[in-house]
Amino acid sequence: MSGVHNIVILTGAGVSAESGIDTFRDGGGLWEQHRVEDVATPEAFVRDPDLVHRFYDARRAAIQTKQPNAAHAALARLDAHWPGELLIVTQNVDDLHERAGAKRLIHMHGEHLNAWCTVCDRRSPWTGTLIDRPACPACGMVGYLRPDVVWFGEMPYRMDDIYRAINRADLFVSIGTSGAVYPAAGFVREARQAGARTLELNMEPSQGSYWFDEARQGPATQLVPQWVD
Ligand code: BV8
């Protein structure tokens, strides 16, 4: 990667697919079994909190049985050794990047293994279920915890930090995302405007492939180590 100093990497569900975590939009994926409006919006949570808790409790349990794959490991190696600025922005709410060793990481759509108290607004590590309306570990209020996940219509986390990194990047790499959801799907255009080279690594061309200088198709566990190493 000659001439590259500052790297921003965007990851999506495709980077965790080979770890056995369902993606959202591939055949049989998570959204195939549910309408997004029924499980991933604040309105859904008000309308049918038990359905939303069942959906997220099942995913929180499933994640804990999965392991990082070669793509997570390669990104963690790059993070550990890259002398310039590097930021992994993940849309994923699993903890596989961390478990592979990644440090310079932002979860823009939240984290499954946290619970968010709608009374005291604090996040607490959480590996159990929420459908049984447990007490908030921070304030003790019972029945007010929700998944710490950014739903549609909600503001993603740390957007200022993300845009600051993108505007300093000279390489932007998108891995395992369909380019279906904003603002993440627009990052490649921000990166181009900042003068960065852009690379997409994905099983198939994404909805935003047109915007990338280069797009390679294949499984992340092959493409990412090839690119990193
Ligand atoms: C926002 C919840 C304002 C967590 C998710 C009307 C009202 C309000 C907002 C909107 C609106 N209309 C449009 C919007 C914006 C909206 C949006 O984009 N809607 C879409 C549907 C059009 N966005 C929002 O609401 C966002 N908030 O806009 O706030 C704002 C704007 C700007 C700046 C600040 C604030 C909030 C979006 C977050 C929604 N939450 N999830 C959860 O349940 O997990 S989104 C959900 O989809 C995931 O979290 C994920 O992040 C996202 C994208 O999915 P992908 O990760 O790409 O997964 P997908 O299955 O789609 O694709 C997988 C890809 O991997 C495929 O391409 C496949 O080929 C590839 N693949 C598969 N296997 C492999 C592989 N690649 C490599 N190797 C493999 N083995």
TrEMBL record:
Enzyme Commission number(s) from the entry: 2.3.1.286
UniProt family annotation: Belongs to the sirtuin family. Class III subfamily.
Keyword S-adenosyl-L-methionine among record annotations: no
PANTHER family (UniProt xref): NAD-DEPENDENT PROTEIN DEACYLASE, NAD-DEPENDENT PROTEIN DEACYLASE SIRTUIN-5, MITOCHONDRIAL-RELATED
InterPro entries (alphabetical): DHS-like_NAD/FAD-binding_dom, NAD-dep_sirtuin_deacylases, Sirtuin, Sirtuin_cat_small_dom_sf, Sirtuin_class_III, Ssirtuin_cat_dom
Predominant cellular place of this UniProt entry's protein: cytoplasm
Protein residues bound to substrate: Y56, R59
Organism (species): Sphingopyxis terrae subsp. ummariensis
Gene (UniProt): cobB
Cofactor binding, per record: Binds 1 zinc ion per subunit.
UniProt keyword list: Cytoplasm, Metal-binding, NAD, Transferase, Zinc
Cofactor requirement: Zn(2+)
Catalytic residue list: H109 (proton acceptor)
Domain-related comment: 2 residues (Tyr-56 and Arg-59) present in a large hydrophobic pocket are probably involved in substrate specificity. They are important for desuccinylation activity, but dispensable for deacetylation activity.
Gene Ontology CC: cytoplasm
Subcellular location: Cytoplasm
Protein name: NAD-dependent protein deacylase
CDD domains listed in its UniProt record: SIRT5_Af1_CobB
Function: NAD-dependent lysine deacetylase and desuccinylase that specifically removes acetyl and succinyl groups on target proteins. Modulates the activities of several proteins which are inactive in their acylated form.
Deacetylase sirtuin-type domain boundaries: 1-229
Highest taxon, organism lineage: Bacteria
Keyword Acyltransferase: no
